[in-house]
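User: Quick sanity check before I run a bigger batch. Here is a single chain. Can you write out its predicted 3D structure?
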Amino acid sequence: MRNISGPLPAIAVLVAYFGLTLMDAVIKDLTDRFHVGQIVAFRYWFGAAAALPFFLRSNPGQVTVPVIRQSAARAVLISLAAACFFFALSIIPLAEATAVAFTSPLFVVVFAALILREPITSVAILSLLLGLAGVAVMVWEDLATFELGSVAMVGAGLVLLAALGYAMVMVLTRLHSTLADPAVLVFCQTLSAAVITLPVLAMTWRPVSLEDVGLFALVGTLGSVSYFGLAWAFSRANAARLSPLEYSVLPWAILFGYVFFDEVPRLETLFGAALIVSACVLILLHQRGSRPG
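Assistant: Done. Predicted structure follows.
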C-alpha cells in the first residue's frame, strides 16, 4: 500500500495509544468491582462487536479453517496475557505496569529470531538485557531484601508474562498475515478469545449495572478501534518512523494514574522506564541503520 508522507499516520498512532492507555485506566477501575476473568471475557465480547464493522468491510471470504485454527491459537495466548496484565493493574500503579509492558518489543525480537528465523544481533541482546535491567530497577528494593512475593514483584512478573504473550501474538500475526487481511485476522482472533473465555465468564459472573455495561463496552471499543488505528497507520508509513510514538503512553499513564487513582510515580519507576525506553530506541536505531539504502 502507498505510503503517506503527511502527519495523518502519526496522528492515528498517537490517538490509538491514547485510546489504549485510557482502556487500561478503565480496566483498572473495573478491577475494584469485578473478577479479572469477567473483565477479560467482556473485553473480547465487546471488542468483537466493535471489530465486526471492520471485518465486514474487509474480505469475510478469507475466513478459512486454517485462519480459524490459527486465530484460536493466538486467542489463547492473548487471553492469558490480558488476564496477567489486568490482574497486575489491580495491584500496581498504572504507570509502573505501562513501563514494564514496554519490554514487549524486545521480546518480539527474540521470538522473531526463533519463529521467523530473523537474525538476532548483539545489539538486540544488549537491548533485552538493558530492558530487563529497567524492570529490576523498579523492583530493586524488593530484590535487595529478597521479598520475591511482594506486590511490586508479583505485579512486575505478571506484566512481564503479559509482555511475553503479547510479543508472541505479534510475531504469530506476522507469520499468519499471508492468509488474510489484518481486519479478518483481528476479528477472528477477538471472537475466538470471546468464545474461549465464555466458561470463565460463567464461573466468575457478578451482576453488572447499566453504568458498568457502558464501561465494558468502552473497553472493548477502545481496544478494537485503537488496534485498527495502529494497523491503518503502520500499513501507510514506515514502522521506524511510527514505533517511537508508543512511548507517548507513559505520560498518559502517569496522568490517568494521578487523576483517577491518586498515584504518584516513584523515582525508581521513572528511571526504570527510561532504561526500558532506551533499550527499545536502541533497537529501532539499529534496525533503521541496518536497512539497505
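The CA atoms of residues 50 and 113 lie 33 Å apart.

User: Great, the batch can go ahead then.
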